């Protein structure tokens, strides 16, 4: 399953605003375009491993600083959907 994790992490690390909004809509996660833009910029600036609980928790804390705790919870819910096997 390592290849699966690598593909998902690569997608997370190269995500655009529109892609993030598309996935949010697909998984019924509420996020504004402004917050999606800031989050996508952050994701592209950091190497993220959403399959590592500690790394994902750190990422969610950073997203909370960028877009607020409610948005961070929603994004975490989206990431959990990505990591379900």
From TrEMBL:
Pfam families: DUF2624
Annotated source species: Pseudoneobacillus rhizosphaerae
Family matches, as InterPro entries: DUF2624 (IPR020277)
UniProt protein name: DUF2624 domain-containing protein
């Amino acid at each position: 399953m390592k290849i699966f994790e690598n593909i998902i992490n690569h997608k997370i690390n190269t995500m655009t605003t529109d892609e993030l909004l598309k996935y949010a809509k697909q998984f019924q996660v509420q996020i504004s375009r402004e917050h999606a833009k800031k989050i996508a910029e952050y994701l592209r600036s950091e190497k993220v491993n959403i399959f590592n609980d500690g790394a994902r928790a750190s990422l969610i804390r950073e997203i909370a600083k960028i877009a607020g705790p409610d948005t961070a919870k929603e994004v975490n819910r989206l990431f959990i959907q990505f990591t379900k096997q």
